[in-house]
Design a protein that fits this description.
Elements (H helix, E strand, L loop, with lengths): L11 E6 L8 E6 L2 E7 L1 E5 L9 E6 L2 H4 L5 E5 L5 H4 L2 H8 L3 E3 L1 H13 L8 E3 L5 E4 L2 E7 L8 E7 L2 E5 L18 H4 L8 E5 L15 H10 L5 E4 L5 H14 L2 E5 L1 H12 L23 E5 L9 H6 L13 E4 L8 H13 L3 E4 L15 H11 L3 E5 L3 H13 L4 E2 L7 E3 L5 E3 L7 E5 L1
Parallel strand pairs: 3-6, 6-7, 7-8, 12-13, 13-19, 14-16, 14-17, 15-16, 17-18, 19-20
Antiparallel strand pairs: 1-2, 1-21, 2-3, 4-5, 5-23, 9-10, 10-11, 11-12, 21-22
Helix pairs in contact: 4-8, 6-7, 11-12
InterPro entries: Metallo-B-lactamas, RibonucZ/Hydroxyglut_hydro, RMMBL, RNase_J_2, RNase_J_b_CASP
GO molecular function: exonuclease activity; metal ion binding; RNA binding
Pfam families: Lactamase_B, RMMBL, RNase_J_b_CASP
């Protein structure tokens, strides 16, 4: 594997994780005897092989290909702070030994993870401003701001003497993102001058027609659910969705409730947002230990565990084993999140436990007025981006086969001449006419935690 090395006229894209699956994103770009890694993430509660039944708590893509030639790795660029993009950095950096480049919020989030591994003083983190351009080895990298479901998501324009790539990262077109600026198409339209050889694009919702809902559209539905509850309100949502947390704090202010956070990932994200100036000064959160002493009608608890994961706050509340907050008949649990494919059974079991306690359960899928918005683009959004950027080649990633096929079809109807689809370990040759060399590299998964 270590003999696969790009020359000065080559431009390669090599996914080790996150292509043909959702999660564990780990991508390599190759040019002029060097590799650039983009993202280094994890997935949770999964098996190492399709035919295995043994579950592991935290899993990453196997980095063996690049660690065998780590002297050729000139840097790791992180597009944003979601665990499926940054969660493996602390575990794998001792094998990578390269500088890490990212913007302020993601850097702060990463530092907290590195501190837990006693790596804070060892890992060189280079903070990059949004919109900046930086040379990393033979790669010239530009950070373009996007909208997603957490602060400071960025796309990358990676320029080389052999060609240029637009790497979307995770994104959506959001005119009302709650935090950060609304989506601005201008920098992406400026790329449509024929200079982009390949667009490596998020496929997560490409098989969904229409447009993705704006984050700001969730306020009305959540407000109505909170306002009409006599007892405690407990909201299960993704801990990284800072915008949703801010929306809930605003709703608590308007409905006379106090907000507390239950779950380490929630607390980490909010503390990161406060440290980087993202969190609004007037959005108060009280010590979660105090919520238990308030009248139920004054409680708005935000809890981890919307996917039914064991040992999370919501699961402990459902089984009367949470050490800070009890829930009971008359309370309302709101799932302000989708059910991720594969988690259906665990969520159903959690809902059953809650209903046995005579707690009212509200699911996002059952609400006429939205209480959840995806952070990823639907079909019309993907089509817009292809028409703006006008790449020569479309490379769908960040999705299972059906999502990537839908992405490729959108690219075709949007005027992109060539679509290259593949899996982890396939080598996408972007220089020249463009082609895929199947199974060029052996890939797999490794367990980071049991």
């Amino acid at each position: 594997m270590s003999t696969l090395l790009p020359g000065s006229k080559d431009l390669y894209f090599l996914p080790l994780g996150g292509t043909g699956e959702i999660g564990m994103n780990m991508n390599l770009y190759g040019h002029d005897d060097h590799w650039l890694m983009v993202d280094c993430g994890v997935t949770f509660k999964d098996t190492l092989t399709p035919d295995s039944t043994e579950l592991f708590d935290v899993i990453s893509a196997d980095p063996a290909f690049i660690t065998a030639q780590s002297d050729k790795l000139c840097g790791l660029v992180l597009t944003h702070a979601h665990e499926d993009h940054v969660g493996a950095v602390a575990d794998l950096w001792p094998r990578l030994q390269c500088p890490v480049y990212t913007t302020r919020f993601t850097a702060e989030f990463l530092r907290r993870k590195l501190a837990q591994h006693s790596l804070l003083d060892r890992v060189p983190i280079i903070e990059v401003d949004s919109g900046a351009t930086l040379d990393i080895g033979p790669f010239n990298v530009e950070w373009l701001p996007l909208t997603h479901s957490l602060p400071e998501p960025h796309a990358l324009v990676i320029r080389t003497s052999a060609g240029n790539v637009f790497h979307t990262g995770d994104w959506k077109i959001d005119p009302q993102p709650v935090i950060g600026e609304p989506f601005d198409p201008t920098p992406f339209q400026a790329l449509g001058d024929g200079s982009i050889d390949a667009m490596v694009c998020d496929s997560t919702n490409a098989n969904r027609p229409g447009r993705s809902l704006s984050e700001g559209a969730c306020f009305a539905g959540l407000y109505e659910q909170v306002k009409t509850t006599e007892g405690r309100v407990i909201v299960g949502c993704f801990g990284s969705n800072i915008a949703r947390l801010i929306t809930l704090c605003r709703i608590a202010q308007e409905t006379g409730r106090y907000v507390g956070l239950y779950g380490r990932s929630l607390q980490t994200m909010v503390s990161t947002a406060k440290a980087t100036g993202v969190w609004p000064a007037d959005c108060d959160i009280i010590d979660s230990r105090h919520l238990a002493y308030l009248p139920p009608r004054e409680v708005l608890a935000i809890a981890t565990g919307s996917q039914g994961e064991p040992r999370t706050a919501l699961q402990r509340m459902a089984t009367d084993s949470h050490y800070e907050l009890d829930i009971s008949a008359g309370d309302r649990v709101i799932f302000s999140a989708i059910v991720i494919p594969g988690n259906e059974t665990s969520v159903e079991n959690l809902v059953r436990l809650l209903k046995l306690k005579k707690v009212e359960v509200v699911m996002a899928a059952d609400c006429e007025t939205p209480i959840h918005a995806s952070g990823h683009p639907s079909a019309d959004d993907v089509a817009d981006l292809y028409r703006w950027v006008q790449p020569r080649i479309a490379i769908p990633v960040h999705g299972e086969a059906e999502h990537m096929l839908a992405n490729a079809n959108i690219a075709r109807t949007s005027g992109v001449r060539k679509q290259l689809t593949g899996q982890n370990g396939d080598l996408f040759v972007i220089s020249g006419p463009g082609r895929v060399r199947k199974n060029a590299v052996s890939t797999g998964r490794i367990a980071l935690r049991r």
